[in-house]
């Protein structure tokens, strides 16, 4: 039987597959859609590298199918803004380009105050005949000094939009360690409907592992499956990493089924050699270092 040799399942393909393999992800996506259709702001919170971005994209696609317009903004791309006013100006330009059905008479200036940013969004909403969704992804990607002012501004936009028949709706996506800042009792954004992308269940973990092995026509013994599930700790990206390590090891040895002995070796090697460079750990470290400069 011909077996697939390409063991590089990229992150995009993996997270897209999660939408089909994980009940946890499907439930969170349905929650987002329901909340938006009720006219609510949404805060999607989950672990880093858990598939939040692809979950959001899928939810926005479903909402577009029923008449909503949307724009998805990766806030990490605005980390280098030299001032808060520059951030507001660049965000306004991005949102205008996505939503404005009629060209504006004046271009967006290089800087906008918070009030001017809100006014620009209100002008955009006035041009639309249906609700629009602005999704701000990767809140933790912003410089830390911009996060709280942005949340205050979004709260003020919420207050302004309450009496309007056509509204801008906001979806804010952040890592689990930002939950207090995003939704805590003193957070300006605590008016949002919380959607938590929790750790995946044991059943989901088994489904994900089997799916990855089946993609390469490989088998896995029940004990090896249990070993990887336990080592994955309910973390989808960690499961993906361990599976890819195991699949590469099987191909290198010309074997077609993962047994418990090799599974334990894979887990031990990850702990000793790879854990320090694990991407969900690297990312916050880099961001902290960036804020210090």
Q: What is this structure's SSE topology?
A:
Elements: H1 11-21, H2 23-37, E1 42-46, H3 52-65, E2 69-74, H4 84-99, H5 114-127, E3 132-137, H6 144-161, E4 168-175, H7 179-183, E5 193-196, H8 202-215, E6 219-220, H9 222-232, H10 236-253, E7 257-258, H11 260-274, H12 279-291
Parallel strand pairs: 1-4, 1-5, 2-3, 3-4, 6-7
Structure description:
It is a single chain. The protein has 293 residues and is of the alpha/beta class. 56% of the residues lie in helices and 11% in strands. The strands form 2 sheets. It has a 5-stranded parallel beta sheet, sandwiched between helices. A two-stranded parallel sheet has the order 6-7. Strand 3, helix 6 and strand 4 form a beta-alpha-beta unit. The chain is elongated, with a radius of gyration of 22 Å.
For the largest beta-sheet, the strand count, sense and barrel status come to: 5 strands, parallel
**Average pLDDT:** 83
Low-confidence parts, pLDDT < 50 over ≥5 residues? 281-293
Summarize the amount of helix as a percent range. 55-70%
Q: What is the CA–CA distance across the termini?
A: 55 Å
Percent of residues in beta strands?
A: 5-15%
Order of SSEs: HHEHEHHEHEHEHEHHEHH
Q: Based on helices, strands and strand pairing, what is the structural class?
A: alpha/beta
Topology, number of strands: 7
Shape, per Cα inertia axes = elongated
Strand order of the largest sheet: 2-3-4-1-5
Tally of contiguous helical segments: 12
Radius of gyration: 22 Å
Quickly list its features.
293 residues; alpha/beta; five-stranded parallel beta sheet; 12 helices; 7 strands; 56% helix; 11% strand; elongated; disordered C terminus
């Amino acid at each position: 039987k011909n077996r697939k040799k390409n063991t590089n399942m990229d992150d995009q393909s993996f997270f897209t597959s999660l939408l089909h393999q994980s009940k946890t992800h499907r439930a969170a996506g349905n929650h987002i859609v329901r909340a938006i259709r009720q006219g609510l702001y949404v805060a999607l919170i989950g672990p880093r590298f858990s598939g939040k971005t692809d979950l959001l994209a899928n939810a926005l696609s479903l909402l577009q199918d029923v008449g909503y317009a949307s724009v998805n903004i990766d806030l990490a791309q605005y980390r280098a803004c030299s001032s808060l006013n520059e951030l507001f100006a660049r965000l306004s330009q991005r949102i205008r380009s996505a939503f404005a059905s009629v060209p504006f008479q004046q271009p967006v200036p290089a800087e906008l105050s918070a009030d001017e940013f809100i006014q620009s969004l209100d002008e955009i909403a006035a041009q639309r005949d249906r609700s629009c969704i602005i999704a701000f992804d990767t809140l933790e990607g912003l410089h830390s000094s911009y996060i709280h002012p942005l949340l205050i501004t979004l709260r003020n936009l919420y207050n302004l939009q309450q009496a309007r028949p056509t509204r801008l709706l906001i979806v804010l996506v952040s890592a689990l360690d930002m939950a207090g800042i995003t939704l805590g009792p003193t957070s300006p954004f605590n008016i949002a409907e919380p959607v938590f992308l929790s750790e995946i269940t044991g059943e989901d973990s088994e489904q994900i592992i089997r799916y990855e092995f089946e993609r390469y026509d490989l088998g896995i013994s029940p004990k090896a499956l249990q070993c990887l599930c336990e080592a994955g700790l309910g973390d989808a990206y960690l499961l993906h990493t361990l599976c890819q390590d195991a699949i590469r090891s099987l191909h290198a040895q010309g074997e077609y089924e993962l047994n418990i002995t090799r599974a334990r070796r894979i887990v031990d090697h990850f702990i000793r050699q790879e854990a320090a460079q694990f991407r969900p750990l690297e990312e916050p470290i880099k961001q902290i270092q960036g804020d210090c400069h």
